[in-house]
Amino acid sequence: MEEKAKMVEETIEKYMKYVNPGFARLCKFANLATIEWEGRGAQVFDIFGRAYLDCIGGFGVFNVGRNHPRVVERAIEQLRRLPLSTRTLFNKQQADLAEMLAKITPGDLQYSFFCNSGAEAVEGALKLARLYTGRKKLVSCLNSFHGKTMGALSVSGREIYKKPFEPLLPETYQVPFNDLESMEKMVDDGTAAVIVEPVQGEGGINIPSPDYLPGVREICNRHGALLIIDEVQTGLGRTGKMFACEHWGVVPDILTLAKGLGGGILPLGAFMSTAT
Fold it and tell me: CATH number of the domain that 157 lies in?
């Protein structure tokens, strides 16, 4: 016990000195001055063996729980055989996953580009939208969260995250969530894309009215803008359907995924698009 207590103390000191002093102080204040040691299913165990019910679920990472044996076994099998792709030869696992995603996603989403995180998936989606349309304007929603890299941060609607890093990407605009009138006024023939969470996560678990996402889809169609639906947090079964946009029968032009896509084992993101 003394050895474990010493390890906790040393770890906190290292956090204070080398990682994040603010986080260390917060954990001590919240009486969480311990080390996470093991995870199984919906529980996390600290170094002393105490169990914690993980009500956060990694904000959508642990859709199948922590350390699901089938996921762990397949990950170990692949790590032993070929940890990283050469990027010069065909990769069967990548092709299989892309095919599976094309089959389970709504509508005619077909192509997948794989990356490391949700923020990176959003970055790719924004770049694809500007490249495909030749336009620059990007529209998103207030209180949205799409990531903290520069492009993803630019279309996020939380000023507390954005202000310290301005100026961000130009021609990015936010409107209130679940407000079709404001969306109608903002989107025009110069808009490359609208990016929206089907259910706002960090903004407060805001669920839109039944007509909102279909209305955004119609506005995008009318102006030739692409619709990007960010399913990083809501995708892969988090809302009772495989993808949250299916609740409203809406198919995006681009879909972003991450978090649960890695099975709670490895970081993995993707953005998907239709063929045209």
Answer: 3.40.640.10
In angstroms, the CA 201 to CA 207 distance is 9
Residue 77 in any domain: the answer is: no
Where are the alpha helices (H) located in 61-198, listed in sequence order? 69-81, 92-104, 118-133, 150-154, 159-162, 180-186
The pLDDT, as a whole number, for residue 248 is 98
Omega before 214 within 30 of 0, i.e. cis: no
Greatest distance between any 2 Cα atoms in the chain: 67
Q: Retrieve residue 161's tokens.
A: 């995250």
Q: Which domain holds residue 215?
A: 90-274
pLDDT score, position 239 = 95
Q: Is 145 a catalytic residue?
A: yes
Within a domain: 171:
yes
In a domain, 119, yes or no: yes
Active-site residue, from 230, 243, 253, 271: 230
Q: Which residue has the tokens 């495989």?
A: 242
Q: What is the mean pLDDT of residues 1-24?
A: 95
- Out of 114, 145, 177, 243, the active site residue is 145
* Strands 269-274, 254-257: pairing kind: antiparallel
Average pLDDT of span 191-208: 97
Is residue 1 over pLDDT 90? no
Domain count, the chain: 1
Residue 80 inside a domain? The answer is no
Q: Is the pTM of this model over 0.90?
A: yes
Q: Are the C-beta atoms of 193 and 200 separated by less than 8 Å?
A: no
